[in-house]
Amino acid sequence: MAEAPWYPWALLPSERLTWTGIDNSRAMATLVDGGTTVSLEFRFAADGQITGIYSSGRWGRFPNGFRQVPWEGHFGQYERHAGVLVPTRGEVGWYRGTSLELVWTGQVRSLRLVE
């Protein structure tokens, strides 16, 4: 679900994906697939673009084993492709205490949307 800003159709409400508002700039998306349910907080700019995602406890593999740790991602530099605005930059990281440590930063160099 964290990669969905690059394929925004995946975020449309459906029988499997529901949205719950948190405040004027945040909403929780919940995806149910079989017996698995995941939720991710999405953060939005005033124009509706997704600026970030957040999980208070995403599972990760660390030197001392698997555990849940706060995790956050940011998106930006939106461009229009096939009539749809998608971010061309992104970054994600794990929180160590109150500090976000980035583990991935990327830039879209080309994009081909498939119908």
TrEMBL record:
Pfam families reported in the protein's UniProt record: DUF6544 (PF20181)
Protein name: DUF6544 family protein
Originating species: Azohydromonas lata
Lineage of the species this protein comes from: Bacteria, Pseudomonadati, Pseudomonadota, Betaproteobacteria, Burkholderiales
